[in-house]
């Protein structure tokens, strides 16, 4: 089975280790991974900020890059959600680009969604000694409808105590451009979310979206909260190597 | 809009005021959470009942039926308005048409002046808030009394409703006791029974001496010309049965064709709004008092209000007129929960308010409201009418961008980024550039790892409250060749 990795702009630039973890975990389960070099961004940041023309330009590049890929896997619930939900809407209904976007959308999976629902893998053989709390990202749970899959994978990690925070569905306040257009509200939302997350006594915060982790992680660092933000794939890969603290 | 001062605080200022008010934020969190959980429990119960065939349908069934009803009604709005008007007249009521807020207040004022009205009692109505009715009547020397407990509280506080369903959501019991004590002229205890008993005593007197009762309507059934009022306090029933004149101000989107359709709507509205299966009172009012009836008004006036609603017809935003004003999107919204109704500043706050305010009253006034959203989509999830609120907010942002209302740094920044990111070569060059451009701001933590504690200029919009991650020395693109080799190894 051959999978094309869509790394996403955030992981590419700031968190390449997430991509490395995804590639190694996929390979470990017999998947051959390719990385189409023309990839940039799915266009979501532009679309969400109302820059439709720029969003469509990026989306065209995305479609060109992945038109031949049988499976597309990405370590972001938000980007997968955008591709699945919005990519076809970005072009006139019935147009060739819209048809191609729909086809690509149906072949695009968030990492845990692919592992659990396509490969049927929940246990990657990881051991990670920590108390972890999982953060649902909004687009992952509401656009993509993926909630249980990452939790199922975390439950299989040995020595990992998984705890649930109050209001697990509540937005962390990142919201892409919202975080810089409305930084005060965005930060106030992070603070409420962090109250619930830290109340669990967890020492690791796990999510499937680098955006939420960047926002919550950056806020935690400013506030001196020691909880470690980790992408699910990072935790699993560290756990596979038994490097987990 | 009739009321509102010329120089209003900016969205930024309104938001800051809310963020600085811990009491307000505590009250908002407490009540929205309660309503959110109440709705959730009610819907879970509905699903269970539906599974046993004991409900009209599951949430999804009801949602699609409700959408079909509203969609059909809006497609034939002219016919249903005429039918409703004919039925209201046939039952002895009078029908008026108000194209604008000014028309609406003028029509009400004329009815009141003809009857020499001194005291007006109102039940809760967002439409009257929208047109600024209270101020217009008070300017003509009339006393206007809000009889919904929440509305009464904010009237005493000289504020506007902070929520579509719970106007005084932002007030604590202590604040309410202070307001009531002023009216009483003596300090009142802060327990809820004492406070509600006081309001009941004051308002009962007002009901008995009011010359006119003004209401809105949750629905108008076209086939019978019936006004439907959904309330919990009974003030709606008093407002429509004690004063000699009733005036109902109704948005034209409140129409539904038949009583069968009402059953679908009533299965959704209370559950979505407060988590109730049904509210304590549901009033169906068809015409004024008839001969031989012991109560009810001598005159019934129904004013159908457009005030921008027809702007939405035939546009992609049309489904925003499906809204039944349950407030579920407000209770689910993490931004509403943080800044409250006065943060938005519009009559209709929250996600639905951020959509309809710019559409009803113009981008000039409310073009920035769609920005007050993290696109978490919690609103779409709870909306009983399935309105695609996040999509509409995105398209309104696009509209604002087309009209060049977005800040220059953002407009140009995104344009540049869009150019770069749709070209793989330029994208990769940009990665290098980002790495070197941020080097002067990089600091090391104790464990030697790198981070950016603060950035200048627009970067400070992030770093004023959060540290920023360091662009990787080698992006994933640049690491791929090695990863590829690693994979080739057996």
Secondary structure layout plus pairing:
The complex is a heterodimer of chains A (245) and B (490).
Chain A: E1 2-5, H1 9-13, H2 16-28, E2 32-34, H3 44-48, H4 52-66, E3 71-74, H5 77-86, H6 96-106, E4 108-110, H7 111-118, E5 127-135, H8 138-142, H9 148-155, E6 158-163, H10 178-181, H11 183-198, E7 204-207, H12 210-223, E8 228-231, H13 232-240
Parallel strand pairs in A: 1-2, 1-3, 3-4, 5-6, 5-7, 7-8
Chain B: H1 11-19, H2 22-51, H3 59-75, H4 77-90, E1 94-98, H5 101-114, E2 119-122, H6 126-131, H7 133-139, E3 143-146, H8 149-156, H9 173-184, H10 192-209, E4 212-215, E5 219-221, E6 226-231, H11 235-241, E7 245-251, E8 255-256, H12 259-274, E9 281-285, E10 299-305, H13 328-332, H14 334-344, H15 350-361, H16 363-366, H17 378-382, H18 389-402, H19 408-421, H20 424-438, E11 443-444, E12 450-451, H21 460-463, H22 476-488
Parallel strand pairs in B: 1-10, 2-3, 2-4, 4-7, 5-8, 7-10
Antiparallel strand pairs in B: 5-6, 6-9, 11-12
Helix pairs in contact in B: 1-14, 2-12, 2-14, 3-12, 9-10, 14-15, 15-18
Description of the structure:
The complex is a heterodimer of chains A (245) and B (490). Chain A has 245 residues and is α/β, with parallel strands linked by helices. Chain A has helices at residues 9-13, 16-28, 44-48, 52-66, 77-86, 96-106, 111-118, 138-142, 148-155, 178-181, 183-198, 210-223, 232-240; strands spanning 2-5, 32-34, 71-74, 108-110, 127-135, 158-163, 204-207, 228-231. Helices cover 50% and strands 15% of the residues of chain A. A 4-stranded parallel beta sheet of chain A has the order 2-1-3-4, with helices on both faces. Chain A has a 4-stranded parallel beta sheet with strand order 6-5-7-8, with helices on both faces. In chain A, α2 crosses α13 (232-240), α5 runs antiparallel to α6 and α11 (183-198) crosses α12 (210-223). The longest helix of chain A has 16 residues, at 183-198. The mean pLDDT of chain A is 97. Chain B is an alpha/beta fold and 490 residues long. In chain B, the strands form 3 sheets. Chain B has a 6-stranded parallel beta sheet, sandwiched between helices. Chain B has a 4-stranded mixed beta sheet with strand order 8-5-6-9, with helices on both faces. In chain B, β11 and β12 form a beta hairpin. Classes of the chains: A alpha/beta (245), B alpha/beta (490).
């Amino acid at each position: 089975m051959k999978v094309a990795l869509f790394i996403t702009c955030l992981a590419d630039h700031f968190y390449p280790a997430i991509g490395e973890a995804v590639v190694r975990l996929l390979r470990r389960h017999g998947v051959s991974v390719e990385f189409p070099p023309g990839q940039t961004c799915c266009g979501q940041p532009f679309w969400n900020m109302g820059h439709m023309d720029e969003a469509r330009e990026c989306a065209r590049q995305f479609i060109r890059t992945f038109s031949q890929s049988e499976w597309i896997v990405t370590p972001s619930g938000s980007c997968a959600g955008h591709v699945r939900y919005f990519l076809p809407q970005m072009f006139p209904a019935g147009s060739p680009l819209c048809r191609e976007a729909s086809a690509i959308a149906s072949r695009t999976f968030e990492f845990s969604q692919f592992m659990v629902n396509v490969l049927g893998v929940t246990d990657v053989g990881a051991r990670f000694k920590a108390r972890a709390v999982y953060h649902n990202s909004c687009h992952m749970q509401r656009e993509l409808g993926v909630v249980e899959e990452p939790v199922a994978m975390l439950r299989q990690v040995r020595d990992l105590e998984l705890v649930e925070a109050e209001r697990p569905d509540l937005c962390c306040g990142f919201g892409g451009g919202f975080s810089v257009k409305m930084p005060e509200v965005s930060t106030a939302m992070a603070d409420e979310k962090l109250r619930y997350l830290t109340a669990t006594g967890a020492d690791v915060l796990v999510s499937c979206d680098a955006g939420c982790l960047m926002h919550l992680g950056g806020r935690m660092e400013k506030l001196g909260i020691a909880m470690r933000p980790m992408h699910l794939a990072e935790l699993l890969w560290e756990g596979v190597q038994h490097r987990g603290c | 809009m009739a009321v509102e001062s010329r120089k209003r605080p900016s969205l930024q200022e309104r938001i800051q005021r809310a963020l600085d008010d811990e009491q307000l934020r505590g009250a908002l969190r407490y009540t929205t959470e309660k309503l959110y959980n109440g709705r959730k429990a009610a819907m879970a119960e509905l699903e269970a009942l539906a599974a046993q065939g004991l409900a009209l349908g599951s949430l999804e069934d009801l949602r699609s039926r409700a959408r079909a009803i509203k969609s059909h009604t809006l497609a034939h709005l002219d016919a249903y308005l005429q039918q409703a008007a004919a039925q209201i007249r046939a039952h002895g009521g009078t029908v008026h048409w108000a194209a604008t807020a000014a028309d609406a207040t003028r029509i009400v004022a004329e009815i009141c002046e003809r009857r020499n009205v001194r005291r007006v009692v109102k039940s809760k109505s967002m439409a009257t808030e929208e047109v600024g009715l209270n101020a217009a009547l008070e300017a003509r020397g009339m006393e206007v009394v809000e009889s919904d407990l929440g509305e009464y509280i904010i009237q005493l506080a000289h504020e506007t409703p902070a929520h579509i369903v719970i106007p005084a959501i932002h007030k604590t019991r202590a604040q309410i006791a202070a307001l009531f004590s002023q009216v009483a002229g003596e300090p009142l205890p802060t327990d809820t029974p004492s406070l509600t008993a006081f309001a009941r005593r004051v308002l009962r007197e007002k009901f008995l001496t009011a010359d006119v009762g003004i209401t809105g309507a949750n629905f108008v059934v076209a086939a019978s010309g019936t006004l439907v009022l959904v309330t919990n306090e009974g003030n709606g029933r008093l407002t429509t049965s004690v004063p000699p004149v009733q005036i109902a101000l109704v948005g034209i989107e409140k129409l539904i064709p038949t009583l069968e359709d009402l059953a679908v709507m009533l299965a959704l509205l209370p559950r979505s709004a407060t988590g109730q299966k049904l509210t304590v009172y549901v009033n169906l009012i068809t015409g004024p008092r008839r001969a031989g009836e012991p109560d009810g008004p001598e005159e019934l006036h129904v004013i159908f209000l457009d005030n921008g609603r027809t702007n939405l017809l035939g546009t992609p935003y049309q489904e925003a007129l499906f809204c039944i004003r349950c407030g579920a999107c407000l209770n689910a919204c993490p931004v509403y929960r943080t800044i409250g109704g006065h943060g938005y500043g519009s009559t209709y706050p929250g996600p639905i308010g951020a959509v309809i305010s710019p559409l009803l009253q113009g981008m000039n006034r409310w073009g920035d409201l769609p920005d007050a959203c993290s696109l978490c989509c919690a609103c779409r999830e709870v909306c009983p009418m399935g309105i695609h609120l996040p999509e509409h907010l995105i398209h309104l942002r696009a509209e604002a961008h087309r009209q060049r209302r977005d800040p220059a740094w953002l407009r140009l920044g995104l344009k540049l980024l869009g150019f770069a990111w749709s070209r793989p070569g330029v994208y990769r060059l940009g990665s290098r550039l980002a790495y070197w451009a941020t080097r002067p701001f990089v600091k090391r933590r104790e464990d030697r790892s790198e981070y950016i504690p603060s950035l200048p200029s627009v970067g400070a919009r992030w770093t004023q409250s959060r540290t920023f991650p360091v662009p990787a020395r080698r992006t994933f693109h640049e690491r791929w060749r090695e990863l590829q080799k690693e994979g080739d190894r057996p």
